[in-house]
Specification:
Blueprint (H helix, E strand, L loop, with lengths): L12 H19 L12 E6 L2 E7 L4 E7 L8 E8 L2 E8 L3 H13 L6 H7 L1 H5 L2
Antiparallel strand pairs: 1-2, 2-5, 3-4, 4-5
């Protein structure tokens, strides 16, 4: 996986589709004597059950910082987590997010911005993602 500098097995339909598309592009480009951009996949997983829906991007290694309303008694809980490794946010999870919020956490996982304070990151929550 280019963004992590290693090889990984990613069992998800999103990766299957995108890697197949990349293979076809590479074959056609090779036949024409051209090169294409290297495959740079951001790991992505999701689940939808009843009124629950979550998305996860990136890697779940390092320190986890939980944010938002994760009280099971809440009418519509919205919560998430960031994973921080070597001072950078490497993964992001969000339950109950709107499409633009899910796009924001994807950007965080892809950009891997610095996270200097875990407490500040927990307090900022989704606001941190909206700044990226």
């Amino acid at each position: 996986m280019k963004m992590y500098g290693d090889i990984r097995r990613v069992e998800h339909v999103d990766h299957s589709r995108k890697s197949a598309e990349q293979a076809v592009k590479a074959i056609f480009a090779s036949e024409q004597g051209k090169d294409i951009e290297p495959y740079d996949y951001l790991p992505y997983f999701y689940s939808r059950s009843f009124d629950l829906s979550w998305q996860f991007y990136g890697d779940n290694v390092g320190d986890a910082v939980i944010f938002g309303d994760h009280d099971p008694a809440s009418a519509k809980a919205k919560f998430g987590s960031y994973w921080i490794k070597d001072g950078k946010v490497v993964g992001a999870f969000l339950e109950g997010g709107a499409p633009e919020e899910n796009q924001a956490i994807a950007k965080v996982a892809k950009a891997q911005p610095a996270a200097t304070s875990l407490d500040a990151l927990a307090k900022e929550g989704l606001e941190f993602a909206s700044k990226i």
